[in-house]
């Protein structure tokens, strides 16, 4: 494998089995990496221990194998990388780019400023030091005013002022768990990820991740955010909305659904194709530019997605 080739990745959280929405993200990221002649890595994002479900990671691995996915190298487990996250946090603290915060959620809600979208943002209460008699609950990164601009390969030009819209965000939570934003940035840098293809539900995290990448002098990946599959009520398919687990007995049917959702228009003769034949067609015909330029699409439970 060319060490300078593009690197993509799929990074599920083991909170339950994969469903059609997960399959869409896995398939798009894999096909995009393969078409670019690159590697496709698998990372298990189990850094959030309270949300991790026992046995879910093994179920996800079995589902991916049943659907014909092949990844490069060993699976990276975030739960085994806590020392690396701690080292980066210590680096930010040592350079006065991160600080301890004593605020509870209620205090933050009571004192937070309103972001432009109406949500709350952290007002920087502990930025100049902990109030007398208070102890650290969490650790936050210092943000500065200024608009971040980046180009999403699907959704086009994006921009956000992290300081204005989010404020100083958490790197280490009050419960001792490292935040997703820190872990994903550190791991993407470690693995040399160059292309991040994922659901648009994570689009709002991208500016924070780019902000951290720049603070740490990490290379910035290229981002492409796929439409999120939702049910008829407009709810993102998830464990909470009772999305059905992938059927490992009929992988070709579900792969075809995912390809159609992604705007790839597989021909009717593939309805009777083997799993290997379907993968061959998908790798040869993948077109990122055909993916709908939407943040969300309703997926019909039986066949074609409804756009909108």
From TrEMBL:
Binding site for Zn(2+): 101, 103, 122, 126
Domain Glutamyl/glutaminyl-tRNA synthetase class Ib catalytic as annotated: residue spans: 9-266
EC number, as in UniProt: 6.1.1.-
Residue window of motif 'KMSKS' region: 236-240
InterPro entries for this protein: Glu-Q_tRNA(Asp)_Synthase (IPR022380), Glu/Gln-tRNA-synth (IPR000924), Glu/Gln-tRNA-synth_Ib_cat-dom (IPR020058), GluQ/Sye (IPR049940), Rossmann-like_a/b/a_fold (IPR014729)
Lipoprotein among keywords: no
UniProt motif ('HIGH' region) ranges: 12-22
Enzyme class: ligase
Binding site for ATP: 239
Molecular function per GO: ligase activity
Entry-linked PANTHER family: GLUTAMATE--TRNA LIGASE, GLUTAMYL-Q TRNA(ASP) SYNTHETASE
Role summary: Catalyzes the tRNA-independent activation of glutamate in presence of ATP and the subsequent transfer of glutamate onto a tRNA(Asp). Glutamate is transferred on the 2-amino-5-(4,5-dihydroxy-2-cyclopenten-1-yl) moiety of the queuosine in the wobble position of the QUC anticodon.
HAMAP family: Glu_Q_tRNA_synth (MF_01428)
Annotated protein name in UniProt: Glutamyl-Q tRNA(Asp) synthetase
Lineage: Bacteria, Pseudomonadati, Pseudomonadota, Betaproteobacteria, Rhodocyclales
């Amino acid at each position: 494998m060319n060490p300078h080739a593009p690197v993509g990745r799929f990074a599920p959280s083991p909170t339950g089995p994969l469903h059609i929405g997960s399959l869409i993200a896995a398939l798009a990221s894999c096909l995009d990496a393969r078409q670019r002649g690159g590697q496709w890595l698998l990372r298990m994002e189990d850094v959030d221990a309270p949300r991790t479900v026992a046995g879910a990671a093994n179920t996800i691995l079995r589902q991916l194998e049943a659907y014909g996915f092949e990844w490069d190298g060993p699976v990276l487990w975030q739960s085994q990388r806590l020392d690396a996250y701690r080292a980066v946090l210590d680096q930010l603290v040592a350079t006065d780019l991160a600080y301890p915060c004593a605020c509870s959620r209620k205090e933050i809600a009571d004192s937070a400023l309103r972001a432009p979208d109406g949500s709350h943002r952290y007002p920087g209460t502990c930025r100049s030091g902990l109030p007398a008699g208070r102890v650290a609950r969490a650790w936050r990164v210092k943000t500065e005013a200024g608009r971040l601009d980046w180009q999403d390969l699907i959704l086009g030009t994006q921009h956000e002022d992290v300081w204005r819209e989010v404020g100083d965000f958490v790197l280490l939570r009050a419960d001792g768990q490292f935040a997703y934003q820190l872990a994903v940035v550190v791991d993407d840098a470690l693995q040399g990820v160059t292309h991040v293809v994922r659901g648009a539900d994570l689009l709002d995290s991208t500016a924070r991740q780019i902000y951290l990448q720049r603070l740490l002098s990490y290379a910035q990946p290229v981002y492409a955010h796929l439409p999120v599959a939702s049910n008829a009520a407009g709810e993102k398919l998830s464990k909470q909305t009772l999305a059905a687990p992938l059927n490992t007995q009929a992988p070709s049917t579900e792969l075809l659904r995912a390809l159609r959702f992604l705007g790839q228009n597989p021909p009717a003769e593939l309805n009777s194709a083997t799993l290997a034949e379907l993968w061959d067609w998908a790798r040869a015909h993948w077109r990122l530019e055909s993916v709908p330029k939407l943040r969300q699409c309703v997926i019909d439970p039986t066949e074609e997605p409804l756009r909108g």
